[in-house]
Amino acid sequence: WYYGYCKGIKTGHTSQAGNCLLSYAEKSKSKLYSVVLGCANATDGTVAKSFTETKRLFEWGYENFTSKTLAKKGDNIAQIGVRLSTDADKLVLTAKRDLNASVPKGLELADMQKDIAAKDEVDAPIRAGDVLGTLTYSYDGVEYGTVELVALNDVEMSKVLYYADKLENFFKTPVFKFILVVLVIFLLLYIIFNMTVGRIRRRSQHSMMRARRSRYNRNNK
After folding, report:
1. According to the model, what pLDDT value does residue 36 have?
2. With contact defined as beta carbons under 8 Å apart, do 54 and 33 qualify?
3. What's residue 220's pLDDT?
4. What pTM, to 2 d.p., does this model score?
5. At residue 218, what are phi and psi to the nearest 5 degrees?
6. Exposure string for 82-107, b = 16+ CB within 10 A, e = fewer
């Protein structure tokens, strides 16, 4: 009745809080929300100050702000790397939903800061719709909206690359390094043992040869 764009309203009043009003309005598909507290009674006895101040807030909002689509579902927002797949090495991230926000009039999308929080690389398998990050739009220190980023399409995993990766990672584990050290020590001990046994055998052979020569010489005399 008082403001035609108003769609929802809840009044309130206590002696300490005064007249209060929580409401929202929609104009040209742009929604604004308002909360006013501690308003005085109407001076002319007709419309409460909580109503007149709310109307002023809405009119100021629609004069200075506009609704803008910051990101659309299905658009190529970003690309990240993919491991363990032969189907693709890149994956397109898109917005999980359309991201709409009220922004100052005259503010262009290109002037806004776009912050993407996502890994540089993910492992297959990946299913379309998997949440892999977030996208936040801000300007001059004010955040205007955040939306989840999801995989645009499926990416299957290669079993060959998967097991090769498992094997590679095993080689980097402390268990493998311990086993490798044990094998190296065992090999060194084996070499030292063979060298020692070889020396003993050669000495024994030399001793036997000298003994045979001594017996041969005594017999020839």
Report:
1. 95
2. no
3. 63
4. 0.67
5. -65, -40
6. bebbeeeeebbbbbbeebbbbbeeee
